Amino acid sequence: MAIRRQPWAFSSLHLPLATALLFVWMFGWGHAMAHTDTANMTALQKHVSFFDRNKDGIITPSETFEGSVAIGFSVAYAREFASLVHGANGPITSPADAPLPHLSIYIENMYKGMHGSDTGAFDAKGRFVPQKFEEIFIKHAKTRRDGLTHSEVEEMILANRDPLDPESWEGPEIEWGGIYKLARDSDGFLHKDDARGIYDGSVFVKLEEKRASSQGVM
Questions:
Q1: Kindly report the CA angle at 160 between 201 and 122, in degrees rounded to 5?
Q2: Among 11, 82, 154, 163, which is least packed, fewest CB within 10 Å?
Q3: What is the pTM of this model?
Q4: Domain-by-domain residue ranges, the chain?
Q5: Of 165, 174, 154, nearest in space to 15 by CA
Q6: SS (H, E, C) 45-113
Q7: Residue 4, class by beta-carbon neighbours within 10 Å (0-12 exposed, 13-18 middle, 19+ buried)?
Q8: Torsion over CA of 192, 198, 202 and 204, rounded to 10 degrees?
Q9: Is 65 exposed, middle or buried (0-12, 13-18, 19+ CB in 10 A)?
Q10: Does the pLDDT of residue 4 top 60, yes or no?
């Protein structure tokens, strides 16, 4: 069934089966250990490793939920986001001998979860491609060179859509839309360094620290 495009992907993500499986996993199943060479991670592996809260090389749905709340998503959105991400990437990245129902994401195999309609700043193995990242700002940062407005991020997402792969359209909406909402400044700009941090996961660390600091002040 086609998914109707909604502004910034903060519409409800209706995935009742995946959500049910998520909570069965969170309160029922465990998982095996995996080896990840952190010193030689690709940018894509670094991008997702923030959500590997216990650093065992495997990201469970509950860890994605926890990490999503930690960077500022609401509980409801974090639950649905974790369901979507793990429903799509768990089966793809799980080795054949991994415990069922294959909802955990294995960082070592994260490249298998690459999707279309993206910026090209990850290559096929998940390595960062600086030239493609720079193209984002050369082509779309029209108001100021080191930041993107709401409309410029949307323009970039639309420009990268693969018309032959409509199933890949939702991913960039969720990824870029979510980070824009959390990381934009008071003038509505997503700064270039924060956009760069999407690719190696450093923006997630920054957002978690910002949220923790604001909660500590309150």
A1: 35
A2: 163
A3: 0.80
A4: 14-27+41-113, 118-218
A5: 174
A6: HHHHHCCCCCCCCEECHHHHHHHHHHHCCCHHHHHHHHHHHHHHHHHHHCCCCCCCCCCCEEHHHHHHH
A7: exposed
A8: 110
A9: buried
A10: no
- What average pLDDT does the chain have? 85
Residue 119's contacts (CB-CB under 8 Å, 6 or more residues apart) are 132, 133, 135, 136, 156, 160, 172
Model confidence at 36, pLDDT cuts 50, 70, 90, reads: low
Say if residue 24's pLDDT is above 70: no
Structure confidence by residue, pLDDT tens digits, 155-189: 999 999 999 999 889 889 988 999 999 999 999 99
Element of type H or E holding 190: strand 190-191
- CATH number for the domain formed by residue range(s) 118-218: 1.10.238
Architecture of domain 14-27+41-113: Orthogonal Bundle (1.10)
Q: Do domains 14-27+41-113 and 118-218 have the same CATH topology?
A: yes
pLDDT for residue 138: 98
Nearest to 119 by CA among 144, 86, 148: 148
Q: Is 54 exposed, middle or buried (0-12, 13-18, 19+ CB in 10 A)?
A: exposed
Measured CA distances, 171 to 113, 161, 195 (Å)? 11, 10, 16
| Count of residues in the chain | 218
